[in-house]
Amino acid sequence: MPQQTTIRTLHTGVLALSLATFACQQAPSRNAARLRLSPPAPSAALDVTSPPPDQPVYATLTSPPHVPPATNRTRPARVVVNLTVKEVVQPMADGAQYTFWTFGGTVPGSFIRVRQGDLVEFHLQNDASSTMPHNIDLHAVTGPGGGAPASFTAPGHASTFSFKALSSGLFVYHCATAPVPLHVANGMYGMILVEPPEGLEPVEHEYYVMEGDFYTKGKYHDRGLQAFDMQKGIEARPTYVVFNGAEGSLLGDKALQAYVGDTVRIFFGVGGPNLTSSFHVIGEIFDRVHFEGGTAFQNNVQTTMVPAGGSAIVEFKVQVPGDYPIVDHSLFRAFNQGAVGMLNVKGPEDKLVYSGKQADALAKQEAAPPKDTGAVEPLAVSTLTTEERMAAGQQLFAGNCAACHQATGSGLPGTIPPLAGSDYLVKSGKDRVLSVALNGLTGPIKVNGNGYNSVMPAWNHLSNDELANIMTYVLGSWGNSGGDVSPADVARVRQGGAI
Ligand SMILES: [Cu+2]
Question: Are 33 and 287 a contacting pair, CB within 8 Å?
């Protein structure tokens, strides 16, 4: 149960920290080291007439975030692709499942890699357990429907068609069976890379990431199997916006990895069905972006826009170790709908490229009066025990409060009051403490004999449940007096306004 909050906490925590750091720090001379001096190799003449060689090549397909190895071929070949459509129940977020329709069992579907001029022999199988017919429209195909009419396949059947990969580029594929947006909204998309004849420049890491918007009857983080919501889809009001088919698919031990000095190439696509992504890696600059997945590229890009059914190839060298959140820079999607992943860079520091924090002093600040947004949530029936509240609260505290009050509750001398053993907590009582958390706090206060005069932000965007968990954790930790805070307590204080 406490698991439920982990990812959200992770988001808010890592993002808040990274964004703050990102906003405050300058990284001089960043670009200097990044100019690519070598122009891309010239395109070889396209050979569309040579007959396919006798021996077919069987395409290696990979699940996200992995990418098949380079084709390393100097001639076109007949490439056989075997792809099976499967309808599967998988997590959308901690505690929330969804019935995804997939190409190859994953969202996005298996990555396909061929070479310009290849003759691709495509075998689309629809698993016998499927409830629907499906097909495939590959944007790499020149021909009606991108292969859709030729590949319409009932459950338990298989279809075959062939196409010549005439143009190089990174192309989205998707199901185009009616109702098309429903099939796409259920996860039926993936990508095919058509390499130029000279191949792509070798890099240390290639990754496969796609963003998609999902529409469920339940709210974000509602638990259990979630049903598709057609109306939300039509109105483009997604419940989830995620990378690689699930919140957290690129977090924790699933974060993308690189080492200082490596070049990372991300094959990034947007399945949609509705949204355009503002693709960004916090703390990095894309050295090179093949925008829209095409041949031309642009250097030194902060955020690249990728349309639904479109792609981009982004490349960047990593110089500084640390965590780099991968986001849709339409930030509510990153903070509140799941669109955040992580690139973890290991290796030695380079303090000339990035110093880290060099000083921290209190700046004079006009304190804004706390505002009450008047948001009132319906009362959820709470089923958590105090232990579960404590565990969930610890995660939420780490993501929301620990940046200032510290994980140990010690605060920071002179600027942030302690929550550990705070006499202020004892004197104030539950409602007043909840009011502080909901509405924030400004002006001089005394905690354990020490004066503080700073600004504590309001946390009224957190749910009653989340605040109840946090305050139960605060009251029950670090030698504090204990006490169970319920969502109903939070709702009461929220409705009553600041006290
Ligand atoms: Cu389909």
Answer: no
**pLDDT in the model for residue 96:** 96
- Establish how many alpha carbons lie within 13 A of residue 246's alpha carbon, considering only the half-sphere containing its beta carbon: 23
Q: What is the DSSP string of 425-479?
A: HHHHHHHHHHHHHHH-EEEEEEETTEEEEEEE---TTS-HHHHHHHHHHHHTSTT
Give the tens place of pLDDT for each residue, 185-214. Answer: 999 999 999 999 999 999 999 999 999 999
Cross-strand pairs, 134? 153
- With the C-alpha atoms ordered 179, 184, 186, 191, is the resulting torsion angle positive or negative? positive
Distances (CA, A) of 275 to 151, 170, 210, 284, 430: 26, 19, 12, 23, 43
Task: Determine the distance separating the centroid of ligand 1 and the alpha carbon of 85, expressed in angstroms.
Answer: 8
Which residue blocks in 165-207 are alpha helix, DSSP H? 180-185
> What tokens were used for 271?
């399945």
- According to the model, what pLDDT value does residue 125 have? 98
**Ligand 1 centroid distance, CA of 84 (Å):** 11
Ligand 1 center to residue 129 CA distance, Å? 13
User: Can you tell me the distance from the alpha carbon of 417 to that of 95, in angstroms, rounded to the nearest whole number?
Assistant: 35
Chain segment 104-149, per-residue pLDDT in tens:
999 999 999 999 999 999 999 999 999 999 999 999 999 999 999 9
- Quickly tell me which residue has 């670090």 as its tokens: 478
E strands in 165-203: 169-174, 189-195
CA of residue 284 to ligand 1 center, whole Å? 36
Distance between CA atoms of 244 and 251, rounded to whole angstroms? 11
Long-range Cβ contact pairs of 351-357 (< 8 A, separation 24 or more): 352/29, 353/27, 353/29, 353/30, 353/33, 353/319, 353/320, 354/25, 354/27, 354/319, 354/320, 355/25, 357/21, 357/25
Q: Output the CA 335–ligand 1 centroid distance in Å.
A: 30
Ligand 1 centroid to Cα of residue 180, in Å, is 7
Q: Which residue has the tokens 């000339």?
A: 352
19 Cβ partners below 8 Å, 6+ apart? 282
Rounded to an integer, the average pLDDT of 273-297 is: 98
Angle CA 366–331–312, to nearest 5: 140
Is the pLDDT confidence value at 95 over 50?
A: yes
22 versus 199: the higher-pLDDT residue is 199
Report how far ligand 1's centroid is from the alpha carbon of 86 (Å).
9
Cα 420 → chain centroid = 34
CA–CA gap between residue 473 and residue 464 (Å, rounded): 14
